Task: structure prediction
Amino acid sequence: MIRFVTNVINLNKAIKKSFRNSEFRLLSILVAVCLMIGTVFYRIVEGWSWLDCVYFSVVTLTTVGYGDLNPTTAISKIFTMFYILIGLGLFLVFVDTLSRRLFSVNIDKPIPKD
Result:
């Protein structure tokens, strides 16, 4: 439990440190905009609830893909293909940048032994 709390604190520090960087802020905005575009698109074209649209956008970009919601129209399927290619790239760069920041927070600390 102590390790979990320590990891949450370190993640919080990494996020705060990352937002001082203008490139990371821009990347965060791009990921948020990508999620919003997907959400609005699925709301208009598929007619899903807002929660379902956000849920599907996040599940798609994180490559989880539960399969409980599926695009039903041809335009939605085409959009989803491009959405995955573009959004996944943005999301992976975001996660990579955040993880690099997270590890730089802990670089001076020794690894605790269990």
